[in-house]
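Troubleshooting: if your tokenizer reports a length mismatch, compare your output against this known-good record of 267 residues.
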Amino acid sequence: MATLPNPLPDLASSGLDLPPGSLVDATLDGPWHEPLLWYADGPAAPRDWTALRTAGRRVGLLPVLVSGGSREQWPGEWDLCPDATTYPGDHDADEVLAGYWTDHAADEVGGAEDATGGRPGLAPTPAQGSGADPDEAAAGLAGVITADPDSWLGGTRMALVPARRSADIPAAIGWSGPVNHENDVARLCAVLRSWEDRYDVRVVVLGFDTMTVSVGRPPTTLAEARALAAEHYAFCPDNIDQSPPYDLDVYAEKAILNQEAWSFWWD
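Known-good structure output:
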């Protein structure tokens, strides 16, 4: 993929006030030629996100929380594949979703399909905005997650990634979490870019095969939520196919409507 100058090799002399942590260059095919990310050795505190977001941006780094999950799989064990990752800007979100729709959605989303006359196109931007700053919404979600060490995302750690926009973070590290759905995560990042534009999304947490994003402008009507649910299904079929009640309309109402965070996992 197209790359920016990577400040991680010079992190020690960057002037950033970082907790103890590690640089990760481990990939599925062996060490990468430069570090892909830095992450802390211990759990994040609620204020860490804002502090590192402000400091990291000066040198071209964006924050993300990383989760080891129940198996304690931290980024050095994530089977990263940067050499198989293209550039998100080379892909069109509508075309990417159309391909996934054709491959996965045939019998699952009849209601959404009927409502839009064939394959749904991109859902419209919600008519009502929240007024929240997208980066502040991300910081708020990160604060909630890191404040509760006993939650299902408890123990997440701060990480810094060389990326220009939040949607590109998975591609910047060659993340392979959705590999059973998509080998080139940059295609999913193209969708994340579109969600950034329409829903003020920010990538807040990555795990081995999980992702949580903040949503600064969520759908506020059931019609808006149902239109977007078709995109969620194409983006991550396992969210519906392997998660009760296995129904897209219920998913739209419970997981999308007025929700300020979306979570995804790939089997």
